[in-house]
Amino acid sequence: MKRKLLLAVSCLLLPLAMRAQTPTDDTFTVSDLEWDGEDYFFTVSLTGTKNYVGYNLDIFLPTGITVMNDVDEGYYVYINTDDGVYPYKGKGNNKTYYHTVSCNVLPGNQLRVACASNENKEFTATSGALFNVYVAIDEATFTSSFSPKPIVRLSGMNLTAVEEGRSAKYVPADYACRPFTTGIPTARTLAVNVSAANKIGTLILPFDTALPSGLKAYTCSGAEGDLLTLSPAQSISTCTPYIVYAESGYSGSLSGTATLTDGSNVTDVFASGYLTGVLTGTTVSTGYILQDQGSGPLFYDADGANFMLPAGRCYLTPSGDSSAKSFRFRFDNADGISETLTPSLGEDWRGLLYDLSGRRVIAPARGIYIQGTRKIIVK
């Protein structure tokens, strides 16, 4: 049994009442993880301007961190009463509690918390700690996670005040943060695979590492028409997107210590030059996606279609407007690869025709086609 007061748990929480809602700069915050000698927990606090009578919010926890649960006692969410902290500041040892806090864990690793006073009693401070959430950490999940530091999101937030005898709803903006560093395993071992048939792939990692034998990496910061110019990298840098090349294919694992150089970044999307990499699975509908549509690997225009990009992959995001339906590759000679990778190796790419969707055409009918960097009209 924890030393703090266990909150009452409600199996089902009713939807939020639909009332007039006023935006506010008051905000909830999430602390780093702390260790109490037995378990990890984090504290949710409020930086406010009013003496509220209640609040509710949804906390979306990252994969690998779950709210602890006890069959008899329920979820480990505790009112933060140590040293008379908010919301009961100044009541000394004889605390009187007017508020009830309920919580429930919903699908998607979502913790819903609601606090209310049956007597509309106000909190005794405008800011301070609200409650603690005890959590379990799955080390195996983080060992194989591309995300360098987990992201916590807060949403569905309301703060309730009593004004002129009626309840008033104040709504803080949704909030996302990377608060957890303590207790999060940083040693990662991640699988990397490049098809022997295609030779080309994309890669972004949450750590620095040397390139293994047989795998080359390139940055991309420019293009000439539909031809990308790639510059060789000597190693893999944290949160940097690359195009990778393996002449005979590559299958192996890379290891390192996950770090996050930009602490203000609250997404797992990182851009550099013409490439954007994702460290969590992301749906992409713009830019260019690496595909093999029958003519070897090219970056094809997503053209508004939804593509699920797995963690550790990248897509092409050229600067400015581009009319190209696809992009091919030219490697810098400095790495010993002198060829330009064309839609069909061994053929003169300038003689190949593609329709406006990027598909190779053998026997063109009437219409507009792409030949190299030119448009061809067949009448």
Shape summary:
elongated
Number of domains: 2
Q: Which secondary-structure class do the elements indicate?
A: mainly beta
Strand content: over 45%
Spans of 5+ residues with little confidence (pLDDT < 50)? 1-18, 88-94, 334-350
Helix content: under 10%
What is the residue-averaged pLDDT?
Answer: 81
Strand tally? 36
Report the major sheet.
8 strands, mixed
Termini distance? 82 Å
Number of separate helices: 1
Provide the gyration radius in Å. Answer: 27 Å
Characterize the structure shown:
The protein is an all-beta fold and 379 residues long. The protein has two domains: 21-177, Immunoglobulin-like; 187-347, no CATH class. Helices cover 1% and strands 47% of the residues. The protein is built from one helix and 36 strands. The protein has one helix at 139-143, and strands spanning 21-24, 27-30, 34-35, 40-47, 54-60, 65-67, 69-70, 74-75, 77-79, 99-106, 110-117, 128-137, 152-163, 166-172, 175-177, 187-194, 200-203, 209-210, 216-224, 227-233, 235-236, 242-245, 250-257, 269-272, 275-278, 282-284, 288-292, 297-301, 307-309, 313-316, 326-331, 340-341, 353-354, 360-361, 367-371, 374-378. Strands 17, 19, 20, 22, 27, 28, 31 and 32 form an eight-stranded mixed sheet that branches. A hairpin with an 8-residue loop joins strand 31 (326-331) and strand 32. The longest helix has 5 residues, at 139-143. The termini are far apart.
Short description:
This protein is mainly β and 379 residues long.
Secondary structure topology:
Blueprint: E1 21-24, E2 27-30, E3 34-35, E4 40-47, E5 54-60, E6 65-67, E7 69-70, E8 74-75, E9 77-79, E10 99-106, E11 110-117, E12 128-137, H1 139-143, E13 152-163, E14 166-172, E15 175-177, E16 187-194, E17 200-203, E18 209-210, E19 216-224, E20 227-233, E21 235-236, E22 242-245, E23 250-257, E24 269-272, E25 275-278, E26 282-284, E27 288-292, E28 297-301, E29 307-309, E30 313-316, E31 326-331, E32 340-341, E33 353-354, E34 360-361, E35 367-371, E36 374-378
Parallel strand pairs: 1-14, 20-31
Antiparallel strand pairs: 2-4, 3-4, 4-12, 5-11, 5-13, 6-12, 7-8, 9-12, 10-11, 13-14, 13-15, 16-23, 17-22, 18-21, 19-20, 19-22, 24-25, 25-30, 26-29, 27-28, 28-31, 31-32, 33-34, 35-36
